Amino acid sequence: METLLEIKDLSKSFDLHNLGKHIRAVSHVDIQLNEGEFIGITGKSGSGKSTILKCIYGAYRIQQGSIWYHSKKFGRINLAEASERQMLYLRKHEIGYVSQFLNVMPRTTARQLVQQAILEMGESKSFAEKETEKILTHFELDQELWDSYPTTFSGGEKLRLNIARAMVKKPRLLLLDEPTASLDHDSKIKVKLLIEQLMNEGTTMLGIFHDLEFMNHLVNREYNMQNGVFS
Q1: Hey, is 80 helix, strand or coil?
Q2: Is 11 within 8 Å of 26 (Cβ atoms)?
Q3: What is the DSSP letter of 153?
Q4: What is the pTM of this model?
Q5: What pLDDT, in 10s, does the model give residues 118-158?
Q6: Burial class of residue 217 in the structure, from the number of CB atoms within 10 Å of its CB (0-12 exposed, 13-18 middle, 19+ buried)
Q7: All domains in the chain, ordered by first residue
Q8: Which residues form the ABC transporter domain (predicted)?
Q9: I want to staple 228 with a disulfide (CB 3.0 to 4.6 A). Which of 48, 57, 180, 192 is the partner?
Q10: Are 169 and 119 in contact (CB under 8 A)?
Q11: Which residues contact 144 (CB under 8 A, 6 or more apart)?
Q12: Do residues 192 and 215 make contact, with C-beta atoms less than 8 angstroms apart?
């Protein structure tokens, strides 16, 4: 089994200049993620879980360590040293990210958001339209909302749309940041079904959770994080 992602000695800290504080978010983290695996990271809020995902996705620059990713386009690449252009390509075509928060362009409807994600992959407009309707139906997003602006959505509706937008691209690597945090039980089941489907199609996943019980039978390995280090 080929290694898709290998994190070595990852450390990240933040300087809060206005408070004169230096905060160590994560220290000396090592993770190896093989193709097709689903690894879960658990821990309390503020333990550093989300920082790891943001470092992989390029939202944070790290102070120490390396994040080696086996890209289809670039081969073995250290994401910690990748250019902005390379990261933009990888986010569009290879690495998906599901956050608890939905950041969208104003005046963009739910349908347009999902369609844009598919069109970025180079697919046709007719294919994008068909797949958009399929996934919005899967997540039971009310059809009356499809052509509405997500700013008017409830927290749960925004999260379902966010998950749909990331998963519809069927990325090689999918980063999940508390993907079921504010969802009801039925919506969680929908997420779980889609995760199972993506795993069967070869997507590799790294997810963070407060409680892994819901994903128990899907996760290959679990890491527990406390105060920025794995316990």
Answers
A1: helix
A2: yes
A3: S
A4: 0.88
A5: 999 889 999 999 999 999 998 888 999 999 999 888 878 88
A6: exposed
A7: 3-230 (3.40.50.300)
A8: 5-231
A9: 48
A10: no
A11: none
A12: yes
